[in-house]
From TrEMBL, chain A:
Its EC number(s): 2.8.3.12
Enzyme superclass (EC): transferase
Pfam families: CoA_trans (PF01144)
Lineage, opening ranks: Bacteria, Bacillati, Actinomycetota, Actinomycetes, Micrococcales
Protein name: Glutaconate CoA-transferase subunit A
InterPro entries: CoA_trans_fam_I, NagB/RpiA_transferase-like
Keywords from the named record: Transferase
Automatic annotation (TrEMBL), chain B:
Name the UniProt record assigns to this protein: Acyl CoA:acetate/3-ketoacid CoA transferase beta subunit
InterPro entries in the record: CoA_trans_fam_I, NagB/RpiA_transferase-like
Protein's UniProt keywords contain Transferase: yes
One Pfam family linked to the record: CoA_trans
Organism placement in taxonomy: Bacteria, Bacillati, Actinomycetota, Actinomycetes, Micrococcales
Protein family per UniProt: Belongs to the 3-oxoacid CoA-transferase subunit B family.
UniProt KW keywords: Transferase
Source species, domain of life: Bacteria
GO MF annotations, alphabetized: transferase activity
Length: 290, 255
């Protein structure tokens, strides 16, 4: 079997300005945040980002990396809105395709199946159609029904974060929901997987049944071990959302000076420096609470 | 017992009534009062409905209020988001959703305030509202009935209203009721919002005054009170910490 292990920086170095990248997870849940942070360290820009968005979108948008966003929503779950995204959106600086969640998934399915579109009822009658001028409807050849023809979402690169993977790129999720990570991978030309832990293939079933084997290596380009790589979003059952840190992120994001301080403290160094800074943050919080 | 019934408890009973004829389907409820309402329905007149833990599981016994299945309850099925969209498409689901704006035909907006190109306020996006309203019954829960929310026309139609659904030929479209902290609203035969009942202690004029389109509440009956058994279940079993009363502002004093 191929050995696809590589460094975070090598994977991200293959992402070029102007590319379309998909980011797995959902809201503030199992987001490939180590990849996102690594992207922030590059000078890549003009990305088209495909995401059921959380802080991944907020961070990339605030760093000026995003030209266009294809999304169903952007939320931090326990905090309804991501301040970095809403601020950019209200400045009117993003090119947008805002879909109903189900439409978004329909677009991924079309992309994965190499179809140019798939039909859905979702969106009919709503303002999603006039807001997304590229969207067309299609008449059923069998009845009077009319559907939204959701264009295929294809990506140059998909980034996902999972609980376990082997060195060849067989991917396992151990939490309650696979989200749509497998579809992102199938609809992308290349997929990079970050994982809490790389395990030998023969140990893949040690922690979960075969139902947890979400994605085959045939869809995976590279595998990177990044413990706490989804932080501060959830990565159940390895860890839950770091709500204290997320609150700090959201509060900092509302104020330019506070955001500069947040960036300097947490995002100026490499991945190890980020986690060290988060540890310091929690230690100081704890001291303050004693 | 009835004298100290709160508006939140009246709203919970009204939410519960939504499920009286639902049978076996997934009860999706956004917000504290709707969540309690769905649980109440399951414990009383509608034992067959399937509750969600708000995460990925179907529950035959509810998890603790506001918590996922990992905190308790009995899992009867697995419904990660991909299955949710499949369920929506089969129609075996009902939603009680919130709204930032609703117009007189029940068009709902949760996406943004202002213009699409440069919104005054970006909200959460259309989320699942277009698909939900195209596929199954949708009801709305409004904790603060106001003229800023009930508007002549919404800024971005997320949940499809009756006029639009008719024009577009949506066959599975079904708007149920709108439950607010002042009243229960439904729709007339033309699909326009009308008053079904006004909550006890609320001046009907207050409903009209707090609605941004014409809405006559003068002849509406009173919303039913929860029964003693319902109150016991709400207060002792489902929501002993009385979180419900924090979601609903007390109405202005009457008279």
């Amino acid at each position: 079997m191929p050995d696809k292990r590589l460094e975070l920086s090598d994977a991200v170095a293959s992402i070029k300005s102007g590319m379309t990248i998909g980011i797995g997870g959902w809201g503030s849940r199992r987001k490939p945040m180590a990849f996102v942070r690594e992207l922030l360290r590059t000078d890549v820009k003009d990305l088209t980002v495909v995401s059921l968005g959380g802080p991944d979108v907020g961070l990339l948008v605030a760093a000026g990396k995003v030209k266009k966003l294809i999304y169903g929503f952007v939320t931090l779950d326990s905090i309804p809105l991501d301040p970095l995204f809403t601020a950019a959106r209200e400045r009117g600086e993003l090119e947008l395709q805002e879909y109903d969640e189900g439409m978004f998934v329909t677009g991924l399915r079309a992309g994965a199946a190499r179809l140019s579109f798939l039909p859905t009822l979702a969106g009919i009658g709503s303002d999603v159609l006039p807001a997304n001028k590229h969207l067309k409807t299609v008449k059923s050849p069998y009845s009077d029904d009319e559907y939204v023809a959701v264009p295929a979402i294809r990506m140059d690169v998909a980034l996902i974060h999972v609980n376990r993977a082997d060195a060849a790129g067989n991917v396992q999720f151990l939490g309650p929901d696979p989200y749509f990570d497998d579809l992102y991978a199938m609809a992308a030309d290349r997929t990079f997987v970050s994982t809490e832990k790389i395990v030998p293939t023969e140990n893949l079933l040690d922690e979960g049944s075969y139902h947890t084997l979400m994605l085959s290596r045939m869809y995976v380009t590279g595998v990177i071990e990044t413990p706490r790589g989804a932080h501060f979003t959830t990565c159940e059952p390895d860890y839950g959302r770091d709500e204290v840190f997320q609150k700090h992120y959201a509060a900092s994001a509302k104020d330019p000076a506070a955001w500069d301080a947040f960036t300097a403290e947490f995002l100026a160094g490499d991945e190890a420096a980020f986690h060290a800074a988060v540890e310091r943050f929690h230690a100081e919080k704890e001291k303050a609470n004693v | 017992m009835s004298n100290d019934v709160t508006i939140a408890e009246i709203c919970v009973a009204a939410c519960s009534d939504i499920y009286r004829e639902s049978g076996e389907l997934l009860a999706h409820a956004v917000g504290i009062v709707p969540s309690i309402g769905a649980r109440l329905a399951k414990l009383t007149h509608s034992p067959d409905i399937i509750l969600s833990d708000g995460e990925a599981f179907m529950m035959s016994e509810a998890s603790p209020l506001g918590k996922p299945a990992s905190a308790g309850g009995v899992i009867e099925g697995w419904a990660p988001f991909r299955r949710i969209f499949d369920i929506v498409a089969t129609g075996r689901r009902q939603s009680i959703m919130g709204a930032s704006q609703i117009d007189q035909y029940g068009n709902q907006n949760i996406s943004l305030i202002g213009d699409w190109d440069k919104p005054k306020r970006q909200l959460i996006g259309v989320r699942g509202a277009p698909g939900n309203t195209a596929n199954h019954r949708v009801d709305y829960w409004i904790a603060r009935h106001s003229a800023r929310l009930f508007v002549p026309s919404v800024d971005m139609v997320s949940g499809v209203g009756n006029d639009r659904a008719k024009a577009a030929g949506l066959k599975h479209h079904h708007l149920g009721v709108i439950i607010t902290n002042l009243a229960v609203l439904d729709y007339d035969e033309d699909g326009r919002v009308k008053v079904l009942s006004v909550h006890p202690g609320v001046d009907p004029q207050e409903v009209t005054d707090n609605t941004g389109f014409p809405l006559d509440a003068s002849n509406a009956p009173e919303t039913r009170l929860p029964t003693d058994e319902e109150l016991r279940l709400i207060r002792e079993v489902i929501d002993p910490r009385a979180v419900r009363n924090r979601e609903v502002p007390a109405p202005q004093p009457v008279g």
